[in-house]
Write a structure and sequence with these properties.
Elements: E1 4-6, H1 14-32, E2 37-39, H2 59-66, E3 109-115, H3 126-142, E4 144-150, H4 153-165, E5 173-177, H5 178-186, H6 193-196, E6 211-212, E7 223-224, E8 231-236, H7 237-243, H8 248-253, H9 259-269, E9 282-284, H10 288-297, E10 304-305, E11 310-311, H11 316-331, E12 356-362, E13 374-377, E14 391-393, E15 397-400, H12 408-417, H13 430-436, H14 440-450, E16 454-456, H15 467-475, H16 481-499
Parallel strand pairs: 1-2, 3-4, 3-5, 9-12, 14-16
Antiparallel strand pairs: 5-15, 6-7, 8-12, 8-13, 10-11
Helix pairs in contact: 1-2, 10-11, 15-16
């Protein structure tokens, strides 16, 4: 008997929950038999949320209690047998199911799954332990050995290129950034998803185990297990309270979160709090290229349009967004520049000093161990933006199967099966978000309003694409945005041409 578990909205008390559980089990068991549905109450999260379901009683005993004291005899459907009554008609014999075909025997083949970190589950959580057990089960089922290959990032793509060119990729499934996958796809070095999946695979059915990732070069090549990814404006809640600033999530909920409000708060947070003539707190910080990419994406622009193979510097939406970023740096002076170099990547970490009110950051860049409390909202949508893209996903990555892999359909099937385990999370990526954020409202903000709304940034895929030069002229050398866009347009177009079609 299979019991489907769902969760009702709202909260119930512990005692009421037990009564409710027993009542629902009995009612639905008697009505629907093996298809009964049990509804369990959940509890809201505060700090350090615990969102999993806990079953505190044995369902087997519960269902036995519901059935009544009928001694385990045959069901009578409420009608007692009487002497002389005609016997019930014999049930028609059940059809014998065709024997399931034996899985292919790969003869001990080693399947390699690669990334620039260890993809093997650590075994620290219940789901990780279950997946390790599933991997062992799949290895035995297909007579294979699964090996997780960890290659240093700087060696990863050179190794990919060298081995693919020989016809023997160093791994069967590879993690790749989109900016690396685009050139590989254009060179015919990757297989399309439709080339290694079947209609029966989960990726083409319920999509609970695996999903297709966004297309590149007009085709779908990538796949991955459902998860959580996103970047937003994070804010130092402690500093906001100290400075008397309005909570950003309240502004977002009320529809007031836009570029004007962002700038207003950034200006209010940039101040000399002890009157010593030096600025003590700042409105904003971050790596300037990352900042510009995000505001451009949130305004419907892009530095490069890979689908149309066109530069994006001269796009009016891009120019408008870069003008706004220039205003933050050179007009309002609300950005903290710790290193003295506005183009320095290390400015990405400046927010960790604790004196910056707002900063852009992806999920992985924050965690519950930061020395201050923090929250998150989407980047404010620009005047010409939409809710489709709220951030620039410059680190987007997925799994790919290189050309030259033997039996790619079977390799993919085996990989997908390793994720066929009981789902212990309320939604994909829940455990990770709970480890990164301290508040339920931040977890739900990321899940509902940021995840899946990233514009994939591919300008780094093009040889020497001049994004850095373009922004340096504006943010460091105080050049006109429009003039700089025209200046670097030919160089950008030449870069696109070098990659080819």
């Amino acid at each position: 008997m299979k019991i489907k578990i769902t969760k009702p909205k709202g909260m119930i008390t512990k005692r009421a929950g037990k009564a409710f559980l027993f009542h629902e089990v009995c009612k639905r068991f008697k009505k629907d038999g093996a298809h009964s549905s049990i509804i369990l109450g959940g509890f809201g999260m505060k700090r350090r949320p615990k969102m999993g379901l806990v079953l505190g009683m044995s369902l087997t005993l519960l269902l036995s209690a519901c059935s009544g004291n009928n001694g385990g005899g045959a069901a009578t459907n409420g009608a007692a047998a009487t002497p002389g009554s005609e016997p019930a008609a014999s049930a028609a014999p059940a059809e014998t199911a065709a024997p399931e075909a034996a899985p292919p025997d790969l003869g001990g083949r080693v399947l390699k799954f690669a990334a620039w970190w260890d993809l093997k589950p650590a075994g620290n959580t219940a789901s990780e332990k279950e997946r390790l057990a599933k991997i062992a089960e799949v290895e035995k089922k297909y007579n294979v050995k699964i090996e997780f290959v960890n290659v240093p990032f700087e060696e990863y793509m050179p190794k990919f290129t060298a081995t693919v060119l020989t016809g023997e990729p160093f791994a069967d499934i590879m993690q790749m950034e989109y900016k690396s996958a685009l050139p590989a796809a254009l060179k015919g070095q990757l297989l399309k998803v439709d080339e290694f999946t079947s209609p029966e695979d989960d990726i083409n059915q319920e999509k609970k185990l695996m999903v297709r990732t966004p297309a590149i070069a007009g085709q779908e090549y990538g796949f991955d297990n459902p998860g959580m990814a996103g970047s937003g404006i994070h804010y130092n809640r402690d500093l906001f309270k100290k400075l008397g600033l309005p909570d950003l999530q309240e502004l977002y909920a009320s529809g007031q979160w836009n570029w004007d409000k962002f700038l207003e708060i950034a200006k209010q947070a940039t101040k000399d709090t002890d009157n010593d003539g030096k600025t003590d707190t700042y409105g904003f910080s971050g790596w300037s290229i990352d900042i510009a990419r995000n505001f451009v994406a949130a305004n419907g622009g892009a530095f490069v349009d890979p689908e149309n193979k066109a530069e994006g510097f001269t796009n009016p939406n891009t120019i408008e967004a870069v003008e706004f970023v220039n205003k933050l740096y050179n007009v309002e002076n609300v950005v903290k520049n710790k290193t003295g170099d506005r183009m320095n990547y290390e400015e990405f970490n400046t927010f960790k000093d604790g004196d910056v009110a707002m900063f852009p950051a992806p999920i992985w860049a924050v965690n519950s161990e930061l020395p201050f409390d923090f929250g998150v909202v989407p980047f404010p949508v620009g005047p010409h933006g939409s809710d489709k893209f709220t951030f620039a996903d410059s680190g987007s990555a997925a799994k790919f199967i290189p050309k030259g892999v033997k039996d790619p359909q079977l390799v993919y099937k085996i990989y997908e099966e390793t994720f066929d385990i009981a789902q212990t999370e309320d939604f994909p990526g829940q455990e990770w978000l709970e480890g990164q954020y301290n508040h339920e409202e931040d977890i739900m903000m990321m899940k509902d309003n940021i995840n899946g709304k990233g514009q994939i940034v591919l300008e780094d895929a093009y040889p020497d694409y001049p994004t850095g030069k373009f922004l340096t002229d504006i943010l460091v050398n105080s050049q006109s945005v429009t003039a700089s866009a025209q200046k670097y347009k030919p160089e950008a177009e030449a870069s696109i041409g070098k990659l080819g079609n």
